[in-house]
């Protein structure tokens, strides 16, 4: 059932002010031209204020003005533009993507079968080129077998290209699939004509081999897009699906989080994440807010403190009053920022697409003129068709289509050997364009693990029993710095303050300054206080140390002409100290996820092309917004999904390696495009003048593709950039 078969008004979500929001799933959109056409068509409908399409997910989000907009007209406008629109359902969208992947996989398998098996019959015919001519009857048998194998395989394997070409032609456009489809069909037609007339040349092998090579690139692109789209899903999966809603008698009732309304009260137990944004009404605890702010220090919460969805409650039970619904929570907002960033990535126009805008109509016109010219000079229908077919085949954009993907595959292999995973098809080109590097602090410049600064061994040993009895990250770091030993007796933990117990029979406390009776500190350092009996309080200071090669990496990035700055959600003191130690002069601290994403938008608006390197979930929106992004292997899953590249290991030099490889890949890609252009300048006139027949054209076309792929393998040569 299409969306136009139902009452779409019931699916428009209206805000209290009357503004509406409708989500549709659009099928058939593949490129930036499709995106622009769909958004323009939907945006032209009366009452529509915004229309944004995410090519990765196929979701079209339409915003209506207050009390305005007819969703049925939006659907009609999208369908008039040549696409299919239905109500958006994430499960249906995933099913459609899975189906496309299965179709491409099956088409690739059929093309591989045809390309491999047709050679059994083509090679004996090719032997005639070396003086071992077959008898006409034998050659005819070989061609019949070739037709039986390659014909059905080519027709089936070509369906993705045929369907795309037909859709493009219906919209009065010509994409790269149009000449591919015409070339394949014309090659098959000429081959069958030669077969039926007893001719010497048929080209079934060329048709199916061409499809096999092109389907490899199409399948790889589909797989990379699938890997790149899961960030928002990974992030929302961290939101607790259930909420402990409290009734008037404070009894807990587990309900789906989507059913909690603004103003409802719910409980969050120790070890649970807050399912919704809200304000604490009762309870005292410490929370790990790294999911939202990236700050390593735990935060103490008391009644009246605002809490974000995703915050991890560590010690005490909290009662919270909801201030936003699940779809409006902080996590949901970050997920929407990620989708916006993914959308901007998917609108990136590759060099091959730009070249196709001129290349495709030029090739069609050239083939048509060749056919007309051959007919005018009296060469006959057969010779005119053969020359036109030769033009289409020899200029078939196989080398052009492989120019970027071949380099991408080679570069991805080189990156993999350096323990860097490439996840986005266009990421290499964007990475080569980067002119600024934006680094998160915790987990990127630093190891992300607090370590105790040098302290008196006796003091560490005295505090260690209490530290062993606590799960607090700073207490665990203190315990790790001490030799093995027993835990304290009669331990009692006070949520948000610290832990107390008996050490050697004496009362002892470990925690905040005020908890142990120490004078208040400035808070510029990450610290923990210990007091044994009536003795003077002892202060332990912790630091998140720089990665071993952080300074070397910063210097190397600067040597490559890249500016470096730090954006962090951590407190100003630790950020300033870390940036100074790493040799970075420009830094910003205490940034929320939205502020980080806004900072990336500011840089892009100023003409910069930033490379963002982050690891926390609070970085995921900024990673998606950046021109290109990287995340370490120990990063949060949503951040890895939002990033274009993921690197393993303790070192940060992987960022430099990735930049070097990306720039080398850009050079190889441009060389391939240059070779493709030169090849066509030579090959096209030869085909027009009848100097090559379709068989030689197919060999030349395959040779050009081979040259492109061999040039791409230079990415793997040791010592080459």
Structural overview:
The chain has 721 residues and is of the alpha+beta class. The protein folds into five domains: 3-88, Alpha-Beta Plaits (2-Layer Sandwich), CATH 3.30.70.100; 95-228; 239-332, Calcium-transporting ATPase, cytoplasmic transduction domain A (Distorted Sandwich); 412-447 and 546-664, HAD superfamily/HAD-like (Rossmann fold, 3-Layer(aba) Sandwich); 448-545, Calcium-transporting ATPase, cytoplasmic domain N, CATH 3.40.1110.10. Helix content is 50%, strand content 18%. The protein contains 25 helices and 27 strands. The strands form five sheets. The protein has a seven-stranded mixed beta sheet with strand order 15-27-26-25-16-23-24, with helices on both faces. A six-stranded antiparallel beta sheet has the order 7-6-8-14-9-12, with no helix packed on it. A six-stranded antiparallel beta sheet has the order 17-22-21-20-19-18. A hairpin with a 5-residue loop joins strand 21 and strand 22 (538-546). It is elongated and about 110 Å long. It starts with 12 loop residues before the first strand and ends in a 9-residue tail after the last helix. Residues 1-5 and 340-350 have low confidence and may be disordered.
